[in-house]
Amino acid sequence: MHTAHLSVGGNDLSIETGKLAKQADGAVIVRYGETVVLVTACYTPTQREGIDFLPLTVDFRENTYASGRIPGGFFKREGKPTEKEVLTSRLIDRPIRPLFPSAWHHETQVVALVLSSDVDNDPDVLGLTGASAALALSSMPLERTIAAVRVGLIDGEFLVNPTYEERQKSRLDLIVAGSTDAIVMVEAGATELSEEELLTALETGHGAIQQIVNTIDEMATVVGKKKLSIEAPVIDGALVTRVEGQVFGPLTDAMKLPDKLESYTQVDKVLGELIESFEEEESDQKLQAKQIFTTLKEKVLRDEILEHGQRLDGRKFDEIRDISSEIGLLPRVHGSAVFTRGETQALVTATLGTSADQQKIEGVAGEIYKRFMLHYNFPPFSVGEVKFLRGPGRREIGHGNLAERSLVPMIPSEDECPYTLRVVSDILESNGSSSMATVCGASLALMDAGIPLKSPVAGVAMGLILDGTTNRHAILSDIAGAEDHYGDMDFKVAGTRTGITALQMDIKVSGITTDIMRDALEQAKAGRFHILDKMETTIESPRDSISTYAPRIVTITIPVDKIRDIIGPGGKTIRSIVDRTGVKIDVEDDGRVNIASADDESAKKAITIIEELTASPELNKTYLGKVQRITDFGAFIEILPGIDGLLHVSEIAHYRVANVRDEIQEGDQVLVKVINVDPSGKVRLSRKALLPAPSGPDADGDTASPKNSQSPSSDTPPRSRARSRGPRGRS
User: Fold this and answer.
1) Percent helix, strand and coil across the chain, each to the nearest 5
2) Is the pTM of the predicted complex or chain greater than 0.70?
């Protein structure tokens, strides 16, 4: 067993091997705080024949026992991967995939299992670092070692591996992966961060990464396995010359056609003519010719950019494709937009719901609720293909998450906008950067729905063509599909006019320098501003009102101790309100009550009922109450639902009342005034305070009830109660 320790972000990071999963080709346990992740790496002994890609599978799993929880559901065991697990699997896959030699065609699998999870440290970056360490210790040949950290920004200070609590306060949630000399992957969400702030964050993260990589390399030197040697297939030089001479010109012409599908058709035609030129006995050469042809497609693109200074579609390096957009396309949805950029088109809809529509997410860290969701769909017809329509794959989940992250900082708070929001992006055409088209379309759809976005968000995908020998490079704005496929970088940047809200970067080369990153960010900023200008010509600000088909939500606040009055025993009261008004009511723990209805009248009726149920008696306020019970000393009158007050016999009238029932009866409605509310909540009422006061000699109020006395003459006042008794004597 061998363990290495180092300090990262003020905490101990340990990487251990030789204790668990010893039959895996490479296995490590990564510990940070009380979060523990086991990562293994294995491969099949034989290579897959006839493929030109790396058959790599990455699986990240969070066991609920890691946090001392039992999973929900009937079976009480982990089911299909959660969205967090899918996203983390992609997070690990993207930076380690370029580490393998191009000739490595063994089935390869990396598995990361979360064994323990504390309340402070996210296991995702530990899984990525662990994957690199397991591969470095294995017998699989890799070009370099990488590691990953998370970076936050709180009060102007950059933090390495911030805790969950610190991330809630942070303006930045950045995951960066890299080697000792370069950054290879970036994943970030931010609250309108400037380009310079982001660069500083990357430099901070890279400094910590270098320490981790050096530690892993030292471990590999001590306990790592001997690396396998992989021989790249030998290509006949004469065959290369023959193929290039035959197809380079026609291939270039085909790839420069402006229409994507037409270009693909012509490229396939050139390939078909090439294959037909070989004799039957040259079957081996046919296979190699196909490989050479693929290499030539990349050469055509790179030569046009680096040698001739132009892109295949004729654009300048910083030029954005033609943009058009439209809102309100679909009459019955709450908000809709079509955003088209070049041959990429997204149909985006926005749907408004109540808090009951929030998404409940169960994970190793516990349960959370989302009130903003963005779902991305990529149907096969968007690229002219025929495939089965199935559920979302890893790519769809990843692209949707990136677009969602881009918009989250601009979504108004629940106090400002009590709606649950679901955005769906259906890609109708695709030729590069459909996730960024989704960001733009989502902003338009939400504004069409009347959602008060803090600012509209736009996104652009940047590319890079790099000559590793001469270090010549070209940064490309708004990359098309071929530039993404054959280029060296896919760098997506989303944000507002104020700053960056999301970032995702994948590098196919060994890494990029800070200078290239800075230039790419500045060029992306110019592209983002251009796109925002185009979007503002469609809709400049959110609509003043929401769709007539969206629910009307009114929010009122009640005292927390009154929540039980609305709910009632077993929910009886709230069900009664819903039945009487037809509204939908959501009561929050902080006293906020959201009332959703199809019309204003129903909402007003529900509000009136709730206000009555939760009102407290106010001193000196008049109420029309109902007599509930009569006693010898007065009457109990319900002035508010569930709240009675005592109307003492002395407060019924200005004259003396001998019998309460002579004045009022059970069920009578009586106008009364609150004259006292004691600390215990007991309410004293007065009726006579609302009656005209008597005048003349009777102004003291000490008179008998007219119902129990003779009508006095004008000059003979009624006797007071004390005088009417007279002196007592013996019989």
Assistant:
1) 35, 30, 35
2) yes
